[in-house]
Write a structure and sequence with these properties.
Length: about 240
């Protein structure tokens, strides 16, 4: 792979992470239960990406095992991530999420054949300390609750599974657009039953605006990440 391709992959990941960062704030200000928010966010995202795939005649993945696992993990991630953001401070969610490179690095060799150099773990530790220092001022936010912390911890593992299995699917030839659309659609299989149990609510006009921004702005960072999977390592993502 050329340095130009790798550079493009790194740039895509950086843009995606920037989009994800303000997604935290949007999820915090939408006053809908987490399952309902995840339900509508997935419907919008899957609907738009699926429509584009049909219009542009992008082929769908031919092998579905890894896509299915990625989609189920992504559905669980959506419920856990949104529940964590709504139940505890954003600082806690970000700080716990900063441990994810370690979980990816520990299993990436087995799942995607990437051996992570030892120095990577030292740099991850240094980055985690940096995040902890920056977020330290908000750790005692009055919105902090232990249940939200627990959701954030479990979310790290679900997000790791989603990232690694979506990378496997990309390595197996799945196109970026249809892979992402399929993952969002499969994630609905996880989210929809929970939403039905808690009660489906129809968003009001301002909430629809935030939902569209979350699904098509911040949420489409996942398209960039899936595109980057064949250009950068899972641990870097």
């Amino acid at each position: 792979m050329s340095e130009r391709e790798r550079g493009a992959g790194i740039a895509a990941v950086c843009v995606a992470l920037t989009a994800f960062s303000w997604g935290f704030v949007i999820a915090k200000v939408i006053h809908l239960p987490a399952p309902v928010l995840a339900f509508w966010r997935l419907i919008v995202g899957a609907g738009v990406l699926g429509t584009l795939a049909v219009v542009w005649r992008v082929p769908w993945p031919t092998r579905w095992r890894d896509v299915l696992i990625a989609g189920l993990a992504f559905g669980a991630h959506q419920l856990l991530y949104l529940s964590a953001v709504q139940r505890t401070s954003i600082a806690i969610v970000v700080l716990i999420g900063a441990t994810q490179p370690l979980t990816v690095a520990m299993v990436s060799h087995k799942l995607v054949g990437e051996k992570v150099p030892r120095r990577f773990f030292a740099w991850v530790l240094l980055a985690f300390v940096g995040v902890a220092i920056v977020m330290g001022a908000n750790l005692h936010d009055p919105s902090h609750r232990v249940s939200g912390d627990l959701f954030a911890v479990v979310n790290v593992f679900m997000l790791t599974a989603y990232l690694l299995y979506s990378k496997r699917a990309r390595m197996d030839g799945a196109p970026t657009l249809t892979l992402t659309a399929a993952i969002l659609s499969i994630a609905l299989l996880v989210v929809a039953p929970v939403t039905l149990l808690t009660g489906v609510a129809w968003p009001n006009r301002p909430e629809w605006g935030f939902l569209l921004l979350l699904a098509l702005g911040s949420g489409n960072g996942h398209v960039l990440v899936n595109w980057a999977h064949t250009r950068v390592s899972a641990a870097l993502v």
